[in-house]
Design brief:
Elements (H helix, E strand, L loop, with lengths): L5 E7 L4 E7 L6 E4 L5 H10 L4 E4 L17 H6 L16 H17 L4 E3 L2 H7 L3 E5 L2 E5 L15 H15 L13 H17 L3 E6 L3 E6 L5 H5 L26 E5 L10 H7 L8 E6 L13 E9 L2 E14 L7 H5 L14 E15 L4 E2 L11 E5 L10
Parallel strand pairs: 1-4, 4-5, 10-12
Antiparallel strand pairs: 1-2, 2-3, 6-7, 8-9, 10-16, 11-14, 12-13, 13-14, 15-16
Helix pairs in contact: 5-6
């Protein structure tokens, strides 16, 4: 690796850019932060830094339709990225932050050269520091196969502390002065620093490139398992995410397995079924947040997470399961967290919600599947009307699996 190297990382948002560099031109090496988040000023700062590389944590281009069945980029399919996080063929269908990202890639490649600008994925990047597994059936790239990394939002969940600890371990290994705790309180700034770290690993030849060069490659770490770093953390940061396969159905009516929530014209915020399913992240690795207004709250029991949430609709007169979420945490209005605290700037839900009337369900796995509910749950399938969520138990052996 060039001793006079500067590795930059950029986190992309609709209204701001956060840029960070690891500067090896000074002794000891240090971390620098762009003094502005304004797009034009950040681009000027990047160009003036004469970087060795720039990692951007959002898509570099649009889908070329190589995965016709899924309608998304090859890398999205390999990571299991779907819903509104998947990169479409038509730029007009993309959220604003994604359009900003593609334009930024083009701008910086024009200024710095194609080989110096590359794409990273913040969640996959952090998870790759905890191991990478290449699966063949279905073809997937599974980062963090032991499910150690917790969600990054909100801060109290412990995932942010895990991410900072992983970066601190890398910077210490390279002799880089660790920035202050205050400098890394912003989740997006931590993502930018991850990009700079992946640039350093790229220069050392310690990365995988995932995807197809025709519609975008994403850089992740290779040959790393930094689980020991998480083992040394206190409290919730040390825990693993619940494994979907580790929670078998009980089959006992008194000990419910979850709730069935009807979808229709009265889905989240008035979304119809199609848009609701499109918005859900569809990959078994990922996590997300699902909104439930209080009129459809999870009632009738004090069942704590984790539990299953079945989203169902009616096909004819038969209620059918359309999605299964594994809920790991429930945030109520009494928790006092703003929507941005949970979802960040890349909020996939396309409408506003009444903060005093909305619960946010954090889920760790999502399965999209159409199944007759009469064959899955006991004692009966939910009624065909919309309304409150209904407690249920799975019939023995009926619970769908992540491979379904």
């Amino acid at each position: 690796m060039d001793e006079a190297a500067r590795f930059l990382g950029v986190d992309v948002g609709t209204s701001r850019l956060l840029a960070t560099s690891i500067d090896f031109t000074v002794d000891p090496p240090i971390v620098r932060f762009a003094p502005s988040t304004e797009h034009g000023k950040v681009v000027d700062w990047i160009r003036s830094a004469e970087p060795t590389s720039v990692a951007i944590d959002a898509p570099s281009g649009w889908s070329k339709g190589l995965r016709r069945r899924e309608g998304r980029r090859v890398v999205d399919a390999l990571f299991g990225v779907g819903g509104l996080y998947g990169t479409p063929e038509n730029p007009g269908e993309a959220p604003a932050w994604m359009q900003v990202s593609v334009a930024l890639h083009q701008q910086l490649k024009g200024a710095l050269g194609e080989d110096r600008v590359f794409e990273v994925h913040p969640t996959a990047g952090f998870r790759s520091l905890l191991g990478v597994h290449f699966a063949s059936e279905p073809e997937r790239v599974v980062c963090d196969p032991k499910h150690r990394l917790l969600p990054g939002r909100p801060r109290s969940r412990g995932g942010q502390d895990q991410r900072v600890a992983l970066l601190a371990a890398l910077l210490t290994e390279w002799g880089v002065v660790m920035p202050s705790e205050e400098a890394l309180e912003d989740v997006d700034r931590v993502d930018a620093l991850l990009g700079a770290c992946l640039g350093c690993l790229r220069a050392r030849g310690q990365i995988h490139q995932v995807g197809d060069p025709r519609d975008g490659l994403v850089v992740i770490a290779s040959d790393r398992d930094m689980s020991r770093v998480l083992d040394e953390l206190p409290g919730p940061s040390r825990r693993s995410r619940p494994s979907l396969a580790s929670v078998p159905p009980s089959g006992i009516a008194e000990d419910i397995d979850g709730f069935a929530l009807p979808l229709g014209d009265r889905g989240p915020g008035g979304l119809d079924l199609k848009r609701t399913l499109e918005t859900l992240a569809t990959h078994p690795e990922g996590n997300g947040f699902f909104p439930v207004t209080l009129h459809g709250r999870l009632g009738g029991t004090d069942r704590p997470p984790p539990f299953d949430l079945v989203l169902y609709s009616n096909l004819g007169h038969i209620p059918a399961m359309r999605a299964l979420l594994r809920v790991t945490h429930v945030y109520t209005p009494q928790d006092g967290l703003a929507r941005r605290d949970l979802l960040g700037e890349r909020d996939p839900w396309p409408m506003s919600f009444d903060a005093e009337q909305t619960q946010w369900l954090e889920y760790d796995h999502a399965i999209l599947q159409e199944s007759d509910l009469d064959e899955l749950i006991m004692p009966d399938a939910p009624p065909s009307r919309t309304g409150s969520a209904i407690p249920f138990s799975w019939l023995p052996g009926a619970r769908p699996s992540a491979a379904a």
